[in-house]
Amino acid sequence: MCASTPGEKTAAGEQSRPANRGVPLVSGTLACVGTGMLLGGHLSPRARNEIEQADIVLALVQDGLIELWLRELNPQLESLQTHYREGYSRRRSYDEMVERLLSHARAGKRTCGAFYGHPGVFAKVPHEAVRRARAESIDAWLEPGISAEDCLYADLGLDPGDYGCQHFEATQFLLYRRRVDPAALLVLWQPGVVGDRSFARFQTGPAYRQLLVDALLRAQPWWTFGGLAVDLVVLNSEPGSYLMPLQRDILALRDRLVHNVQNSFGLGTALASGFHLLR
Questions:
Q1: Is 244 helix (H, G, I), strand (E, B) or coil?
Q2: Which one of 21, 85, 88, 116 is the catalytic residue?
Q3: Is 176 a residue of the active site?
Q4: What integer pLDDT is reported at residue 190 of this predicted model?
Q5: Has 116 been annotated as catalytic?
Q6: For the residues of 117-179, what is the DSSP string, one character each?
Q7: Of 63, 78, 136, 196, which residue is least crowded by CB atoms under 10 Å?
């Protein structure tokens, strides 16, 4: 948590934003706000105010419809999506976005970066922009929004306070063999780009996602052997056909693992945990 001096008070007596400590501020400011996951419905009053009062708004959101809606709040809006290009390193794209945000704040503008979800969750650009801005004595902060994680708890009726919750990025989960507490909730993020270490792809193919399924299938018997029944549900979006090779491969792997577990641990003819392959 960053230490800061008190900021100005709003009419309701609420802290408006953190202020940089002990340094004179450049006249420009940078607020990185979260727009949430639902068009218009997740935007907080504070985030909306930053968007409406900004001299310039730079947006990185899910689609063009949300950009159009944000433009109604502030016509001085520019999209950051133009920095994404197929085969172009996302690291370079992120650096360009950060520099674009900072260029307006350095010029003395009240600058707002609008990012879908929460600007601090799986969002490198807002964090880096705020860090660099503060290093240059520019007043900068994050304004929280409703993230996909928040929606997950509400949609599935989960409470992380019941058993705990652990979050891993899917590629890191596979590469670094992260230790999992099977008694707690496990959330794996960004499975759509699992296995991509180039930062230049927007999606990896079924073979990469199969690696993630394989890892979870291999972990499930060990969790069961440890006394914890864990159901694994896999949703296969493979196009329907007579062959359905991915469907057959997953089921064959499941059968091999069940056979190995029964031979190794003597669990009998059935596992306590369930495996459900849905289409």
A1: coil
A2: 116
A3: no
A4: 81
A5: yes
A6: B-TTSS-HHHHHHHHHHHHTT-EEEEE----HHHHHHHHHT--HHHH-EEEEEHHHHHHTT--
A7: 63
Tokens of 72: 């109604």
Specify the pairing of strand 77-79 against strand 56-60.
parallel
**pLDDT given at position 24:** 45
Please tell me the pTM assigned to this model: 0.72
Instruction: Name the 3-class secondary structure at 112.
Output: strand
Q: Which two tokens stand for residue 276?
A: 């459900």
Kindly name the residue from 17, 48, 84, 90 that is annotated as catalytic: 90
Alpha carbon separation from 199 to 91, 92, 127 (Å, rounded): 7, 9, 18
Give the pairing of strands 185-189 and 77-79: unpaired
Residue type, 154: A
Q: What is the mean pLDDT of each run of 10 residues along the chain (279 residues)?
A: 43 48 69 93 95 98 91 97 84 95 97 96 95 97 95 90 91 83 84 67 66 76 68 65 65 69 55 63
| Set 94, 100, 208, 209: catalytic member | 94
Looking at residue 91, its amino acid is R
What letter does residue 36 receive in the DSSP assignment? B
